[in-house]
């Protein structure tokens, strides 16, 4: 059950994260509570930085995809560990800058950036803007011109790869809202357009093939398609790209049956494939960027809840009602995404029950999981839902006017708060 290396059962039989008793955390900070193992986050960041440094051309490095979990403390961790930062909104950019992140190390993304956001990014001096397509390139060009700046830009292109079948040029995956498609020739045409714009410095290309990828295969296919595209662009236009951004997508092991991917091994395989392709095309190897989000934070996070009641429905299901739910983690309600869980008070006991974890929102779809293996639950128990570091806090809402939970970070066996608990006053603060 404890498939995450940072989780243990202590002498009292309680679940501990990074050596800290989760019942102590629940008592000190209340529930629901996000808990992040900061040692693990930093270790994961270091692993990606080191692997890219070792296996990719000089200057290559990972940019933490802050959409997975964005707060000032996370931005500072990414900065300390030598990562760049991927932001997708004025809000994420603001958070990064407020945390002291160097704008030169930030790449600004998004498929529907507003004029105000583009202006904010340019004025802030972000190192890169990933332009989603032709219209946006023109917009960036105009705004940069008005601000008297020459903005470095990546063009986002769509390689047409289904990461879960490892198939290339599947038209289904070209029918997406992101980027300009390579297979139809659009990406090349838009590149030609970009090269003619006076206030844009085309630094290279960006692509992202998906999320929750367990093996190197899809990334190798991505490397094949992208290197062929870069070679084609050079042949047609004479332009040589300085940066190739391959996006994010490294998987996390959510359930015991999942095997955590070997990220360093995947990065080595991609580096080797790229090197072989550059040699084949006689192309000067560009700097490679990648954007891991989930792979850094998912396994480092758990969420603690208090059981409010336990009910046995006539159909046989056992409902364990928690003091949180889709408001703090919408992943099961949205995607049917499964998370493991356990009763933190008796973490070492057998998980003999299959329960439905019910949230507190007024709708029946507010569940955190069905058929979840759990120790026998009792009202007042602390339940830990695992692998919640990515896309939970960052996707949380105030539905039913529930204040969003705080987040505690555990480092060196000690805990501190990195996001405080919202209050009812916070939630009502904008009401006029
Ligand atoms: N770069 C780009 C351009 C992306 O769109 C994404 C994720 C990433 C990087 C980071 O991908 P990661 O390494 O985290 O897989 N809310 C969903 C996940 C949505 C991912 C969207 N884009 C979930 O809860 O599973």
Can you tell me about this structure?
The protein has 432 residues and is an alpha/beta fold. The protein has helices spanning 22-29, 38-55, 72-80, 90-98, 115-124, 134-146, 186-195, 217-237, 263-281, 294-297, 331-335, 424-428, and strands at 7-9, 15-17, 20-21, 33-37, 61-65, 84-87, 106-108, 128-131, 151-158, 161-162, 167-168, 180-181, 200-206, 243-245, 287-290, 301-312, 318-322, 341-343, 353-358, 367-374, 382-386, 407-411, 414-419. Strands 4, 16, 17, 18, 19, 20, 21, 22 and 23 form a nine-stranded mixed β-sheet that branches. An eight-stranded parallel barrel has the order 5-6-7-8-9-13-14-15, surrounded by six helices. Helix 2 packs parallel to helix 9 (263-281), helix 5 packs across helix 6 (134-146) and helix 8 (217-237) runs parallel beside helix 9. The longest helix is centred in the middle third of the chain and has 21 residues, at 217-237. Residues 65, 68, 86, 109, 208, 211, 247-250, 291-295, 331, 391 line the site of ligand LLP.
Question: Can you give keywords for this protein?
Answer:
30% helix; 432 residues; single chain; binds ligand LLP; TIM Barrel; alpha/beta; Lyase, Ornithine Decarboxylase, Chain A, domain 1; 2 domains
Q: Which ligands appear in the coordinates?
A: ligand LLP
Q: How would you name the oligomeric state of the polypeptide chains in this document?
A: single chain
Please give the count of helices: 12
Structural class: alpha/beta
* Mean pLDDT over all positions: 96
Round the Cα radius of gyration to an integer and report it.
Answer: 23 Å
